[in-house]
Amino acid sequence: MLDLGHRHIAFISAMMNTTNVIRLRRLQGVKDTYAERPGCTVQVFTRDYTPKEELNSIDLEQRIGYELTMDCLKRKSRISGFVAVNDFIAYGVLDAIADRGFRVPEDYSVCGFNNLSSSRISHVGLTTVEQQTEERARSAFDILYERIIGGDAASDIIRMEYTHRLLERRSTAPFRQIPQEKS
Questions:
Q1: What is the spatial distance between Cα 162 and Cα 160, in angstroms, rounded to a whole number?
Q2: If pLDDT is split at 50, 70 and 90, which confidence band does 150 have?
Q3: Beta bridge partners of 165
Q4: How far apart, in whole angstroms, are the C-alpha atoms of residue 164 and residue 131?
Q5: 131 near 69, Cβ under 8 Å?
Q6: How far apart are CA 83 and CA 43, in angstroms?
Q7: Which one, of 22, 53, 34, 3, lies nearest residue 164 by Cα?
Q8: Is residue 139 a contact partner of residue 161, using CB atoms and an 8 Å limit?
Q9: What DSSP string runs through 43-106?
Q10: For a Cys-Cys bond, which of 11, 91, 112, 183 suits 128, CB 3.0-4.6 Å?
Q11: Is 117 helix (H, G, I), strand (E, B) or coil?
């Protein structure tokens, strides 16, 4: 986002606490990057939820992304882009922007994390950060499986380099003037 000229962004996330370390790390990474450039800001929007709420709602993160983005848009700040803590939250961001009469990426840019398969659908086209989630999950499963069947102890240890790559799709574009409120 920063390289596209978005100097003021919103970071949208569901509950952020020590139980959700990856969310805290993602926020810190965004803040650290924006702190390197004078005059840039990151506004954080987050919402807690109860375990019961999480169990009873398969679309909780999408709804949280929607609600927090609506709140952000009502504030009429200088934000030109949204970074969502994951792709599910980003889907809510996209829906809220559309419901307010704005367009992505013409009016706002949106980026998520995880590169879910649905983010590749042409009508979504979400720019997202791929963090090799499938490969890490497969490695964890392989280690667990080997332990269950009493396999080779050498496979119990694995070193993983945390790498990422940005997959630019249709939801981000260079900065344009901040859009005016749609009626």
A1: 6
A2: confident
A3: 130
A4: 5
A5: no
A6: 10
A7: 22
A8: no
A9: EEEEE---HHHHHT-TTHHHHHHHHHHHHHHHTT-S--EEEESSHHHHHHHHHHHHHTT--TTT
A10: 112
A11: helix
Task: Copy the structure tokens of residue 3.
Answer: 């390289």
C-alpha–C-alpha distance, residues 87 and 1, integer Å: 16
Distance (Å, rounded) from C-alpha 101 to C-alpha 126? 18
Amino acid residing at 133: T
Judge contact between 115 and 133, C-beta under 8 A. yes
Structure tokens at 171: 């939801």
Counting Cβ atoms within 10 Å, is residue 41 exposed (0-12), middle (13-18) or buried (19+)?
middle
> Global pTM?
0.77
Percent of the chain with pLDDT over 70: 77
Residue with token string 């559309």: 98
Q: What pLDDT, on a 0 to 100 scale, did the predictor assign at position 137?
A: 66
Number of C-beta neighbours around residue 76 at 10 A: 10
Among candidates 76, 24, 36, which has minimal Cα distance to 11? 24
53: which residues sit within 8 A by CB, 6+ positions away?
A: 60
